[in-house]
Amino acid sequence: MRPEPIHIIILVIVILLIFGAPKLPMIAKNIGKSLKVFKSEVDDLRTDKEKDKGASEEAPRQIQERSSAPTVDDVTGGSAQQQADPQTDDDSTHRS
């Protein structure tokens, strides 16, 4: 269903009654600025997406090399080797 000219005329009259004639240029200017910002953001997203496609081969290698998962050192506050050594030293001193 296509809008007919009478629908557009009625819509314009209703907008004039709601907002008034003096505010319409200001509203149109703000809508234009908003569309300009929206268009620039869409263009930025497209360029970012294209950059990500080119760098997608390097990203998995970097992720595999450096994991973000916590290690034993992060959880315990020290290294597992340092904690294991004192126990073996204690056992050896008790046996002597």
Characteristic key phrases:
96 residues, mainly alpha
Q: Short summary of the structure?
A:
The chain has helices at 5-19, 24-55, 58-65, 72-76, 80-95. The protein has 96 residues and is mostly helical.
Polypeptide structure, described:
The protein is an all-alpha fold and 96 residues long. It contains five helices and no strands.
Query: How many beta-strand elements?
Result: 0
Shape: elongated
Distance between the first and last residues' Cα: 96 Å
N-to-C series of helices and strands: HHHHH
Structural class: mainly alpha
Uncertain segments are: none
Q: Percent of residues in helical segments?
A: over 70%
Radius of gyration: 33 Å
Q: Count of DSSP helices? A: 5
What does the average pLDDT come to? 75
- The percent range for strand residues is under 5%
Could you describe the largest sheet, including whether it forms a barrel? none
